[in-house]
Write a structure and sequence with these properties.
Length: 118
């Protein structure tokens, strides 16, 4: 049994599983169960949410099994990357606002009129 590593891209996992299947030549149903079981949990859960058919129902051919896993995995990976990008954008916006606020305060302090009487 092979599992998708936490940082492994879906295409790399499917490629690795394809190589293993070339050696073992699993039946389509067995191949599908191995692919599903080995997926990262977030991809497997996404598949369960979007599929009309039960997840344990294998596609019509081994190649369709591999392609189905890739299609779903890419969607999940893209969503993860988008969320990370949005989080980075929020952090950048916060940092930019904080820097602008500091500059404004420094500018006020530099140009503050003197209260010394002579």
């Amino acid at each position: 049994m092979e599992y998708q590593n936490s940082e492994e891209r879906i295409k790399d996992y499917v490629s690795r599983m394809h190589m293993h299947n070339m050696l073992t030549n699993l039946a389509r149903e067995q191949l599908w169960q191995c692919l599903i079981t080995g997926l990262q949990a977030n991809i497997r859960e996404y598949m369960k949410r979007i599929n009309k058919d039960p997840v344990d129902l294998a596609p019509a051919s081994p190649e369709m099994c591999f392609q189905a896993i890739i299609n779903v995995g890419i969607v999940v990976e893209n969503e993860k990357q988008y969320k990370q990008w949005m989080q980075n954008q929020r952090k950048l916006k916060e940092q930019t606002a904080a820097a602008a606020k500091r500059r404004k305060l420094e500018h006020k302090l530099e140009h503050k009129p003197s209260t010394d009487k002579k």
